[in-house]
Write a structure and sequence with these properties.
Shape: elongated
Number of helices: 9
Helix content: 40-55%
Radius of gyration: 30 Å
Distance between the termini: 101 Å
Length: 370
C-alpha cells in the first residue's frame, strides 16, 4: 500500500498581526494549484486561497522595525555595561555587580537573537482584484527563501516571461495600479467579533502601577517603604495576573490601539523587573549562603546601588505606564458614552436640487391660480 501524497507543504515563516489577539498566528502552505494562507486564533482557523494562475506579483519591502529593536536592546545593553563598569571600578557591593552582569547578559542574548534573524520586512501578494499582506513573511532571509519556492511554482503554472514581456507587464502595472500599496483586509480572524470592553481590568492594573510608584518613592525616605516585602511580592503577583487577563480580554475588542500598546509595555516592564529581582535573589543566595533578613526585601536605596537602580526603574516605569494608561482608558470610556449622531429620517431630508426646483415651480403655479 503506497503512502498518500501530501496535499499541502508548510512554507517557512510565521508571524503575528497587531490587529488581532496576541495569539493570532499566520502561516503559508503550498498546495497543488494554490497558496493557502492560514490565520489561526486560539481554537479557530481562517483560510484564504491564492491560485497560482491569478498571482500577478509578490512585493517585498524592507522595514526598519528590526533595526529599531536592535537599537533599543543595544541601548539597554550599553546602560547595564556602563553601570557594570562603574561598579567594578568603584568597588560596589558584589551582589549589585553580579546583578548588573545578569541583566547585561539578558539583553545581549536577545540582541544576538534578533540580529541573527535578519532584517524585518513586509510582503504583499498582488492579484488582479486585491493586494494582501503575507504576515508570515516578516524576516528578509525567510521571505526571500519562501518567495523563491512560490515563484518557481507560479512560473511552472503561468509560464516564464521573457525580459521584454516582464518589462511590459511592469509598465502596465505601474500605469494601472496606485503607487501606494493598499492591501485588502487580510485579517478575517480579527474581524470575527468586535466586542465592547469598558477597560475595567485595565483600570485596576494601571491603578496598581500607581501604588507601585508610591511605594518605590517611599523607599527613598522610609527604610522598608510603605509596603513590606511580602505585601510587595503579592502586589507584584497581582499585577502579573491582571496584565495577563488584560492581554487576553483586549483581543477583538474596540479598545484603542494606545491602550493595547500600553498593556504590552506593562508586561515588558514586569518581565524586566522580575528578571532583575530573580537575578538578585540567586546572586544573594550564592554569595550569602546564610540568609540575612527578609529574602523578599531589597536593602534601602542609600545602602545599595542595586536597590537604587531598581527603585528608580520601578518608579519611572510604573508612574509613566500607570498615568498614561489611566488617561487613555478614561478617555476611551468618555468617548464610548457619547451617543452617535441621530440619522435624519428620509421624510425630513432635503430633496435633490432637481426636485427642489420642481417643487418651487409647482408652488409658483399654485399661487398664480385665481
Amino acid at each position: 500500500m503506497t503512502a498518500e501524497k501530501k496535499e499541502y507543504t508548510k512554507l517557512p515563516g510565521s508571524g503575528t498581526s497587531s490587529e488581532g489577539m496576541a495569539s493570532t498566528r499566520y502561516y503559508l502552505w503550498l498546495g497543488a494549484d494554490h497558496l493557502l494562507s492560514v490565520i489561526r486564533e486560539g481554537y479557530y482557523e481562517q483560510y484564504k486561497r491564492f491560485y497560482f494562475k491569478d498571482i500577478q506579483a509578490i512585493i517585498l519591502r524592507k522595514t526598519l522595525t528590526g533595526r529599531i529593536v536592535n537599537y533599543v536592546l543595544g541601548a539597554f545593553l550599553l546602560v547595564f555595561l556602563a553601570l557594570l563598569t562603574a561598579g567594578i571600578t568603584n568597588n560596589w557591593d558584589e551582589i549589585g555587580i553580579w546583578m548588573l552582569a545578569w541583566m547585561a547578559g539578558f539583553f545581549l542574548i536577545f540582541l544576538l537573537l534578533n540580529w541573527f534573524k535578519g532584517p524585518t520586512c513586509q510582503c504583499f501578494l498582488r492579484t488582479a482584484v486585491q493586494v494582501d499582506r503575507l504576515y508570515s513573511l516578516n524576516r528578509l532571509p525567510v521571505a526571500m527563501r519562501t518567495i523563491r519556492l512560490i515563484a518557481a511554482t507560479v512560473e511552472a503554472t503561468q509560464g516564464k516571461l521573457s525580459q521584454e514581456e516582464a518589462i511590459a507587464v511592469e509598465n502596465t502595472s505601474r500605469a494601472t495600479q496606485p503607487s501606494t500599496l493598499q492591501p485588502s483586509q487580510p485579517v478575517p480572524a480579527a474581524k470575527l467579533t468586535i466586542r465592547h470592553d469598558g477597560g475595567l481590568v485595565h483600570i485596576f492594573l494601571f491603578s496598581l502601577l500607581l501604588l507601585v510608584l508610591i511605594n518605590s518613592v517611599s523607599r527613598f525616605f522610609l527604610k522598608d517603604g510603605l509596603l513590606s516585602g511580602e505585601i510587595g511580592f503579592i502586589l507584584y503577583t497581582l499585577i502579573i495576573t491582571l496584565a495577563l487577563i488584560s492581554l487576553i480580554k483586549q483581543g477583538n475588542t474596540n479598545l484603542t490601539r494606545g491602550i493595547k500598546i500600553i498593556t504590552w509595555c506593562t508586561l515588558f516592564y514586569i518581565v524586566i523587573g522580575g528578571i532583575m529581582m530573580t537575578a538578585f535573589l540567586i546572586t544573594n543566595a550564592v554569595l550569602s549562603p546564610t540568609p540575612v533578613g527578609n529574602p523578599f526585601s531589597l536593602p534601602p536605596p542609600n545602602e545599595s546601588i542595586l536597590a537604587w537602580i531598581m527603585c528608580v526603574y520601578s518608579a519611572v516605569c510604573s508612574g509613566v505606564l500607570g498615568l498614561l494608561g489611566l488617561f487613555l482608558v478614561y478617555d476611551f470610556r468618555r468617548k464610548s458614552r457619547i451617543p452617535p449622531p441621530l440619522a435624519v429620517p428620509p421624510s425630513l431630508s432635503t430633496p435633490p436640487p432637481e426636485e427642489q426646483a420642481g417643487l418651487n415651480d409647482s408652488n409658483q403655479q399654485d399661487r398664480n391660480i385665481p
